[in-house]
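Help needed: design a sequence for this.
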C-alpha cells in the first residue's frame, strides 16, 4: 500500500469488488433467507450491515497477525454481549457514577473517548450510545461508511431441497421417519460492487491511526477467507481500490473518481459464471491535482 493510503489525516474514497459462487452472500430473514435482490431489476444486494459484520468478525485476527495491541481492537457490537453493559464499562473506567446524577459534557466526552480507544468498530463505524443508564453518552459518528453492495448483473436465486438423515424429535424416529426435509438458497454466480468513504474530520474525533487503516485494508483483503460457511458458498475479494486526497476536505467529488472504475462483460459472454467473464477498466489519466490512486488488491 502507498503511504498516503493509510494516512488518517486525509480523505479516502474506495471501492471493493467481490463475487459469490453457489452461495448466499446475504439472506433476507423476511424472505425465508432468500438472497437479497432488487425486485425491480433482479440485481443482487448485500447490505452495508453484512459487510461491516464480516469486518468485525475478522479485524481482531488481522490486528493480532500484525502485532497490534489487542486492547485497542476489541469489538463493541458482538454476539453474546449486551451494549448497555459495554457502555457502562466506560463509566466505570472513567470514574463516572451510574444513576440519576447528571454527568457533565467533559465526563461524557471522556467516556466516549474510552470506548473509541478500546473498540475498533466504534472508532471506524461509530455507535449509538443513548440507551439505558448511559443515555447521556449520545452518539459517536464514525468516519468510515460503506454503501450497499450491488451485483453488476441480475442474479437468479435458486432454492435447493435438501434432506437430513437424523430427526429433530425422538418421537419422529419412533414413528418411523428416516429423513427430514429442508432447503437452502444459492446464487449461481454474482459479482458485487460496494463503495466506502472515509472522513478525516470525523476520524480525528474517534482517534483513527495509520495502523487502524492498515488493519482495515488487510481485513478487507482476507475477511472472506476467515468467514467461510457452507451457506455462503465461495466468496472472494476481486478488487480493492482507494483514492486518497491531499487533505481532510478532499480535492475532488467522490463519485467522479469512483466512476473511473468500469466493469464490463468480456465479448461473447451471455451469462457470467466466473470472474474471468468480466474485465475491469481503470481510467487513471489526468487525475485531479492532489488525488492519488492505489490498487490495494486486484
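Sure. Designed sequence:
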Amino acid at each position: 500500500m502507498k503511504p498516503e493510503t493509510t494516512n488518517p489525516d486525509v480523505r479516502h474514497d474506495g471501492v471493493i469488488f467481490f463475487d459469490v459462487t453457489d452461495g448466499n452472500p446475504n439472506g433476507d430473514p423476511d424472505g425465508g433467507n432468500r438472497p437479497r435482490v432488487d425486485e425491480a431489476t433482479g440485481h443482487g444486494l448485500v447490505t452495508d450491515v453484512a459487510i461491516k459484520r464480516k469486518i468485525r468478525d475478522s479485524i481482531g485476527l488481522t490486528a493480532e497477525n500484525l502485532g497490534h495491541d489487542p486492547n485497542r481492537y476489541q469489538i463493541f457490537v458482538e454476539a453474546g454481549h449486551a451494549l448497555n453493559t459495554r457502555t457502562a464499562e466506560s463509566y466505570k473506567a472513567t470514574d463516572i457514577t451510574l444513576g440519576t446524577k447528571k454527568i457533565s459534557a467533559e465526563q461524557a466526552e471522556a467516556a466516549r473517548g474510552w470506548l473509541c480507544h478500546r473498540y475498533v468498530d466504534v472508532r471506524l463505524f461509530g455507535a449509538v450510545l443513548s440507551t439505558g443508564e448511559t443515555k447521556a453518552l449520545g452518539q459517536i459518528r464514525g468516519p468510515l461508511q460503506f454503501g450497499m453492495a450491488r451485483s453488476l448483473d441480475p442474479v437468479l436465486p435458486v432454492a435447493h431441497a435438501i434432506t437430513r438423515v437424523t430427526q429433530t424429535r425422538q418421537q419422529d424416529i419412533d414413528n418411523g421417519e428416516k429423513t427430514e426435509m429442508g432447503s437452502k438458497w444459492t446464487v449461481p454466480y454474482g459479482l458485487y460492487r460496494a463503495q466506502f468513504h472515509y472522513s478525516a474530520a470525523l476520524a480525528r474525533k474517534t482517534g483513527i491511526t495509520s495502523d487502524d487503516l492498515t488493519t482495515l485494508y488487510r481485513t478487507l483483503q482476507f475477511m472472506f477467507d476467515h468467514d467461510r460457511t457452507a451457506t455462503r458458498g465461495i466468496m472472494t475479494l476481486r478488487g480493492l481500490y482507494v483514492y486518497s486526497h491531499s487533505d481532510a476536505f478532499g480535492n475532488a467529488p467522490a463519485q467522479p473518481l469512483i466512476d473511473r472504475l468500469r466493469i464490463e462483460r468480456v465479448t461473447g459472454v451471455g451469462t457470467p459464471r466466473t470472474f474471468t467473464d468480466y474485465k475491469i477498466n481503470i481510467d487513471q489519466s489526468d487525475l485531479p491535482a492532489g488525488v492519488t490512486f492505489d490498487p490495494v488488491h486486484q
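The mean pLDDT is 93.
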